[in-house]
Amino acid sequence: MTTASDRQGSGPWVLVVEDDARMLDLLDRALRSRGYAVDLAADGEDAQRAGLTNGYDVVVLDVMIPPPDGIAVLRSWRAAQRMMPVLLLTARDGVDDRVTGLDTGADDYLTKPFAVAELFARVERLLDRPALLRPMVLSNGNLTLDPATHRVARGETRIDLSAKEVALLQELMRQPGTVLTRSYLLEHLWDSAYEGDSNVLDVYIGYLREKVDRPFGHDSIETVRGVGYRLRQADTSGGQR
């Protein structure tokens, strides 16, 4: 599958999961022509891994892919609180199939064959609508972040962050304990103008540490030398694992 380092485009980041090579290529070219950044997966294992690792803006997911199938992949994402909007693709148009997909956590359903224009319309509608399925507040120990209001706090103490600092902290908090590579953070939070050796990421990590960690006696943002950064997952008492 393609990875974040392979993607081009500065628009919304889309994962397309489809085992038919011609359809996968068609969707890839069509979405890129509209400015989307596209990752591709052709089976359930790659799709599951990508969805658990990356912060996609939307996913186009075929139901009938090599195992685990699309429904199982979607179920695993939702169980892990990965709440990116998901558009299911299927050749089956039965009511039971649609209900199963929607009950599993799909946001929309598109039956094959379909016009590319309709796919664009469905994807753009998912990107534009309020993210009702997403958690209202992210938390790690006593650190909380409300994506809707950008309110960040340690316990009862409000922390003022810039929009970019909030975006960086949100990426870290969405995947506690997971190492996020420098290239992933730079490409997803800045743009392709920044190279992997740019120090802009280090500067913003420093800002976060000075605001959300050091004043409170925490050391939650960990540098993984040569790779990137991760937020240490807090235990229930607010300490770090």
Structure description:
This protein is α/β, with parallel strands linked by helices and 241 residues long. The protein folds into two domains: 4-128, Response regulator (Rossmann fold, 3-Layer(aba) Sandwich), CATH 3.40.50; 138-231, Arc Repressor Mutant, subunit A, CATH 1.10.10.10. It contains eight helices and twelve strands. It has helices at 21-33, 44-53, 70-79, 95-104, 116-128, 163-174, 182-189, 200-213; strands spanning 13-17, 37-41, 58-62, 86-90, 108-111, 138-140, 143-146, 151-154, 157-159, 180-181, 221-224, 228-231. The strands form three sheets. A five-stranded parallel beta sheet has the order 2-1-3-4-5, with helices on both faces. Helix 1 links the parallel strand 1 and strand 2 (37-41). Helix 2 packs parallel to helix 3 and helix 6 crosses helix 8 (200-213). The radius of gyration is 19 Å and the shape is elongated. It starts with 12 loop residues before the first strand and ends in a 10-residue tail after the last strand.
Counted beta strands: 12
Separation of the first and last Cα atoms: 32 Å
* CATH class category name of the largest domain: Alpha Beta
H/E topology pattern: EHEHEHEHEHEEEEHEHHEE
- Rg, please? 19 Å
CATH superfamily of the largest domain: Response regulator
> Quick one: overall form?
elongated
Q: Tell me the strand order in the biggest sheet.
A: 2-1-3-4-5
CATH topology of the largest domain: Rossmann fold
Helix content: 25-40%
